[in-house]
Specification:
Layout (H helix, E strand, L loop, with lengths): L4 H20 L15 E2 L7 E2 L6 E5 L1 H5 L6 H5 L5 E3 L9 E3 L7 E5 L2 E2 L21 E6 L13 E6 L12 E10 L4 E12 L2 E12 L11 H7 L14 E14 L2 E15 L7 E16 L5 E18 L5 E18 L5 E17 L8 E15 L3 E16 L8 E19 L2 E12 L3 H5 L1 E4 L4 E4 L7 E14 L2 E29 L2 E31 L2 E16 L2 E2 L7 E9 L3 E10 L15 E10 L7 E8 L23 E9 L1
């Protein structure tokens, strides 16, 4: 079903002005006391929890971190955080991998609702939101994310862009300007954002432009393992071809801010062009237009303190161009997603929320290389989460029900196929605080996920990954039971977090190399593609994530801190090791921080991966050494000059979770410099 954008846009505007009138009549009530944003996680539970009191594993990149972050795509930016890797397909299309899970199991959201793009369909498809647009990114690792449904069985990445302001800027105007460049790919990035207060209205505008050429690599694009397996030479080369990327995005939004809430609308347009190394001279041209509406109304009395609602609607298309510049396959994804949350009024340490969520999306692939048929996806869900937090102990739990319907006409022909899934998910946890600064939690969750359109209906050659993908229309719901232990410690000079988990899957959906080959005819030349089929099996995942920091020296606002982080995941199925599971990693850092200067030295070791699925090649380990620094030359801290050297020793590094790991290593030595100005 194609969304009628004009109708929905008119409906949004009419509803927006109507509700603004209602808010204007409610300005006499006092506003709720604000909570410190830096201490609260809003992804996972709508009522927000302090980072040191969550029983689920979370990470946050705040505005200060993002201001000097690399101008990379989402997956590459997050890779290296505990439990996270990048799909590493291309500089324009990397997607987060959480605890070895990717694709449809990891929900990438913007302000709590889906992106309505095609990034989960294939690893060469770009996420239609760039970190450069955001002022905060929150990551939840693991399936305890009932507010977002079973599709978030692996975790959630929520990009908060501030495009719809929720409060007036403190000084009437606030924002930032940034620019940076990098040597490894001749990269350039320029961006800016501003929020202006006009009485009760807050207006926002932002823009971002990024360009990068093919990047330099320290070795042959062919891995040692592939060269040995195929009997080919590892020719040295200085540049990995067809890895260029260009992105432009523009957004505008506005809100009416009242004492009891806010209501706002926004519009965003994204254009991106990037190369695909798996196919010579093939590139993707992406375009998306998106409308959003979001609001909150706070109640004076009653069992609920606030009602929050979010709506997103988008028209997305990307075209794959062949080497002669002719349009090839076109992918369209149009639809909408909405959610509403009623937040309970805290009573005696008791917090909670109930909510509903719905989406409607039409996915369409047109062309000779379409490997997934046109599919209509409808989903509706309802959930409730509760938390009791006493001084020394507490409990939390939640329940969610989803109905998901997928309708498609198979590429092989025949009658229309409709699959409907009714999924139930539940979680519970207990936690204690045996002493100040120490939090211990234990959680148990059971989550169900419906198969995606690709897992059900794929049936053709997928040139981006150089395989023939074969779905299975008889796949059942995927179910996982997860036990996770959590430790937070924050006292004095020492801070630490530990998450240990074990997950048992019933009906785990895995993409497996069958050992068969299918002939692909391109202009009379026959090429054999391996056949990868989606199969269902049982699986066990287990692992941990740990991070710690210790302030070894402090003097006024100057501090030297030692940091360490490590993660590990092991995954077995009834068919053997699961596919593309990341190896262990250990990272050590020393940081010096002060008012004018910041310096940091990082050493990251990623182990080899030899526990591989059938027909999957192992990957060598590697060590990266990175050096970073920042200088704030003025007392008001508004201007920051920063520089970073990555992979200083030009190490050959390959991301095991990437489909292209054996023909596309990670970039070589890189120097990045930039400037950020806050106002």
């Amino acid at each position: 079903m194609t969304v009628n954008r004009s109708f929905h846009s008119a409906l949004l505007v009419a509803a927006g002005w109507s509700a603004m009138g209602g808010l204007a009549l409610a300005q006499t009530a006092p506003q709720d006391q604000a909570t410190t944003v830096e201490e609260i996680i809003v992804t996972g539970v709508p009522f927000g929890i302090s980072r040191n009191a969550t029983t689920i594993a979370t990470s946050v990149l705040d505005e200060q971190v993002l201001a000097t972050a690399p101008a990379s795509s989402l997956g590459d930016l997050l890779a290296g955080l505990p439990g996270l890797r990048s799909s590493g397909f291309a500089p324009g299309s990397s997607r987060p991998v959480i605890r070895g899970l990717s694709g449809p199991r990891v929900q990438v959201l913007t302000n709590g609702v889906g992106l309505i793009d095609a990034s989960s369909v294939s690893p060469d498809h770009q996420v239609a939101a760039d970190p450069g647009e955001s002022d905060r990114i929150e990551i939840v690792r693991g399936p305890a994310t009932l507010t977002y449904g079973g599709s978030a069985i692996g975790g959630v990445v929520n990009i908060l862009d501030g495009r719809i302001p929720e409060a007036l800027p403190e000084n009437g105007l606030e924002g930032r300007l940034s620019a940076q460049g990098s040597t490894v790919d001749n990269g350039r990035s320029f961006g800016g954002r501003a929020t202006l207060g006009l009485g009760r209205f807050a207006l926002h505008i932002d823009a971002l432009k990024k360009e990068a050429d093919d990047y330099e690599i320290p070795s042959s694009p062919i891995s040692r393992q592939l060269a040995d397996a195929e009997g080919i030479d590892r020719d040295e080369t200085g540049v990995l071809p067809n890895r260029f990327s260009e992105l432009e995005t523009f957004g505008i939004g506005g809100s009416y801010i009242a004492d009891r809430g806010f209501l706002g609308l926004s519009y965003k347009e994204t254009d991106s062009i990037y190369g695909i190394v798996a196919e010579d001279a093939v590139f993707i041209d992406l375009h998306q237009e998106r409308f959003d509406a979001r609001g909150e109304y706070r109640f004076d009395t009653g069992p609920f303190r606030a009602l929050r609602a979010t709506y997103g609607q988008a028209d997305y298309t990307h075209t794959e161009f062949e080497d002669v510049g002719e349009p090839g396959t076109v992918f369209n994804s149009d639809g909408w997603e909405a959610r509403a949350d009623l937040i309970q009024r805290p009573v005696g340490g008791w917090n909670g929320a109930v909510g509903v969520q719905a989406l409607s999306r039409n996915f369409e692939a047109i062309g000779d290389e379409a490997f997934v048929p046109t599919t209509d996806i409808e989903e509706a869900g309802v959930y409730a989460v509760q938390r009791l937090d006493r001084d020394g102990y507490g409990f939390e739990g939640g329940l969610r029900y989803d109905r998901r319907t997928l309708t498609a006409t198979p590429l092989s022909g025949g009658a229309e196929v409709e699959r409907q899934f009714d999924n139930w998910s539940a979680s519970g946890a207990v936690f204690v605080r045996p002493q100040p600064g120490l939090f211990l939690g234990l959680s148990l969750s059971r989550t169900e996920r419906a198969p995606s359109e690709v897992e059900l209906f794929a049936d053709s050659f997928h040139l981006a990954t150089a395989v023939y993908e074969l779905g299975d229309t008889t796949l059942d719901t995927e179910t996982v039971v997860t036990v996770e232990g959590t430790v937070h410690y924050d006292r004095g000079a020492f801070r630490g977090d530990l998450h240990v988990y074990a997950a048992k899957y019933d009906g785990f959906i895995d993409q497996r190399d069958t050992g068969l080959e299918a002939p692909f005819d391109e202009d009379g030349q026959i090429e054999l593609f391996p056949v990868f089929a989606y199969v269902q099996t049982d699986a066990d995942f287990r692992g941990f994530e740990a991070q710690a920091a210790y302030d070894v020296w402090t003097s006024g606002r100057r501090v030297v801190t030692l940091e360490a982080a490590a993660d590990y995941v092991d995954a077995d199925t009834d068919l053997g090791p699961a596919s593309r599971i990341p190896p262990w990693s250990v990272t050590g850092r020393i940081r010096y921080g002060s008012t004018p200067f910041d310096l940091g030295l990082e050493v990251r070791r990623v182990g080899e991966q030899d526990q591989v699925a059938a027909f999957e090649l192992p990957t060598d380990g590697y060590t990266l050494v990175n050096l970073s620094g920042a200088w704030r030359p003025f007392q008001d801290d508004r201007i920051t000059l920063f520089a970073e050297g990555r992979n200083l020793f030009d190490e050959e590094a390959r991301e095991h979770v990437s489909f292209l790991k054996d023909i596309a290593p990670m970039p070589g030595r890189n120097l990045r410099v930039g400037i950020n100005y806050r106002f």
